[in-house]
User: What shape does this take?
Amino acid sequence: MKFIKTPVKGMCDMLPSDMRLREHVLSMIKKSYGQYGFMQIETPIVEHIENLTSKQGGDNEKLIFKVMKRGAELQRAIDKGDGEYADNGLRYDLTLPLARYYACNKEKLPSPFKALQMGNVYRADNPQKGRFRQFTQCDIDILGDDSSLAEIELITATASMLTQIFAEINITDFTIHINDRRILGAVALCAGFAEEDVGSVLISLDKFDKIGLAGIEKELLENGYAQETVDKYLSVYRAVKEGITIDAFCQGIDEAYLPAGVKQNLSDIIESVAPVLAQGVKIVFDPTLVRGMGYYTGPIFEITMDGYNFSIAGGGRYDKMIGKFSGQDVAASGFSIGFERIVTILKDHMQDASKLPEGSTAYLLGNKVSLERKAEVLSTARRLREDGTVVTVLPMAKNMKHQIGLLEAEGYTKFEKIYE
Amino acid sequence: MKFIKTPVKGMCDMLPSDMRLREHVLSMIKKSYGQYGFMQIETPIVEHIENLTSKQGGDNEKLIFKVMKRGAELQRAIDKGDGEYADNGLRYDLTLPLARYYACNKEKLPSPFKALQMGNVYRADNPQKGRFRQFTQCDIDILGDDSSLAEIELITATASMLTQIFAEINITDFTIHINDRRILGAVALCAGFAEEDVGSVLISLDKFDKIGLAGIEKELLENGYAQETVDKYLSVYRAVKEGITIDAFCQGIDEAYLPAGVKQNLSDIIESVAPVLAQGVKIVFDPTLVRGMGYYTGPIFEITMDGYNFSIAGGGRYDKMIGKFSGQDVAASGFSIGFERIVTILKDHMQDASKLPEGSTAYLLGNKVSLERKAEVLSTARRLREDGTVVTVLPMAKNMKHQIGLLEAEGYTKFEKIYE
Assistant: This one.
């Protein structure tokens, strides 16, 4: 018998303590976003292979778990020998299925539509510490709103949610970084880069935190761009001081590259969000924020926790993506929360959330207990359960000390031993 | 561009109202089983193909969604041309992954271990009304307890959970049917069937509700069994009257076929469960209860709702299954709840659970609203949200009546229109 005990490579079995923590975080996320009017939806984990390989997913398309055709269709594909053995695949993110979902169900949904998705996605990546092949993503998106109100709601909702979750481990300080793809583009064009090179230039600028301006200069020159253009481009970022305003940063950019509406929109967001943030949370214009995904078209944003060198949430506006699928442009902006990261941080700081609630009680029944005594125990257990207490009734193990030890590890604190 | 808007065949997009109802039911299940000491666990949706095709899954193994090998491994399989293109598959139930999970994680878990699993399973079945290719299963299992306490806890926990859920639609009457595979076997052997024919005879008896004793007689004779054996066998079931006791039913069965311990165990379960059931719920010995799965070894049980002709939950003891995988027998008993059925019944009776909570408020902002006014609205919204109210802030649509109609359908009842 060829039986494999371990889970599939790169995927995890969740122990009860893992699940308690994950469920705790999920329920806080649901509640918090729910109060902001985001509505939970779900798409199947299995998606059409045509949709998954339609070039919207960038590198993720190389990592698809493909699902095989079945029956006669599979036989046809084998006979044909064209390698087209898959008709489906596992979704690699929640954004692509959302685009399909919205195209399919738009008529039944309020407009604008505020979606909350929490679910597993699959990437056949090389597994490494903290990176899995099945992991939970948590996204909010507002579809059909082309105004700054979409970003204001996305950012205030996420800041409020993170504030609530991290208050439990006394982390209160977050920074919301915000920028706009159109400003990033205007700076590059203004410096003399060609329109078609902007994407490549932004990939270099995106490494600012890792390699600094000197590293970016080196890379841009290596990529064959003229020294003069690179100098002009980087001089703009060299002049950046902490707390620089949008207007100050943009003052050298020609209106032809950057309409006033873009700056106004970005400062609208900042001015509207700032007053409703909790103590310790701030929103700053960050002219070096790029964010990797190619599909962003407007404001982009990221949240960092002071003292941690990674972002805990990130998103932006992607007005052109849904239209590529449905044939009809739909304004869209979204925020993706690093669920697995949040869980990892909480796991390090917060023992209680992975334990059973206070007062959880285990009745251990010896094998000589009479039916009458057992009936009494079950009746008491029923009353306690109705009052909301966690109660388990178990046969007493031969090695009771070991049994109790493992129950204590889960959070049971009261033990009633019934011998007869 | 080849883009497909509809979900994959046989799988569903969940609308917000679907999700609210499903989340409501899931949270009641979690809470109720949690109070009985069942601990939530999770296994990956993707499972080793070797495990899925190890003959434990019966007909479900014909319905596997297979996941293709990737990269060099796939190329090797294609070059070899042996058709072994899949290394993984999507789980078709939660019991097989549980067996693997327990074999892998046993040392870290309390013993006996009370597991709660809620998750999606996948079967490439022909889709039909109410049957999907991705659907949610909800199972509880007790591993490592060979005593009747396991069944007592499984049954009381499930009865209590169903009572709570269905109280909301004023359904209070359930019947718990219970029988034992060893009694079913003893009756057949005693009538003169050969040991190796018992499985086939039980498959016929399982159709009692559909075809009655006359139909069973016809089928058994068609299957080539002797008239005399069939007569003797069915005479036992002909004598059954409502409310028959275990002892009365078993009185003609030789102790060689049926040790007294089996009867005692079953009546223990009934006597222990009955007193802790809610008003309207009863537990009855049902000698014609068979349950399809081949792997059951002891007590089997099912719950029906009076007035519905299908079971809402079913389960039994399967002491030999985990050992087949892990090489070490582990006593096991489980109960599987018809989650999709419960949701369907509630959907017909219960509008409220699929709506937003009372008092949910939508602010609709016209496009002339000043930054100052918007700030006031956001600040008010923040206060209401902190008090627990669902508040959404949206741009006013051109067709506001249509917009409000769709928001009302979700459950928004208060609308604040801000024009400037």
In short: The longest strand of chain B covers residues 113-122. Residues 16-35 of chain B form the longest helix (20 residues). Residues 358-418 of chain B form one domain. Chain B touches chain A through 103 residues (CB under 8 Å).
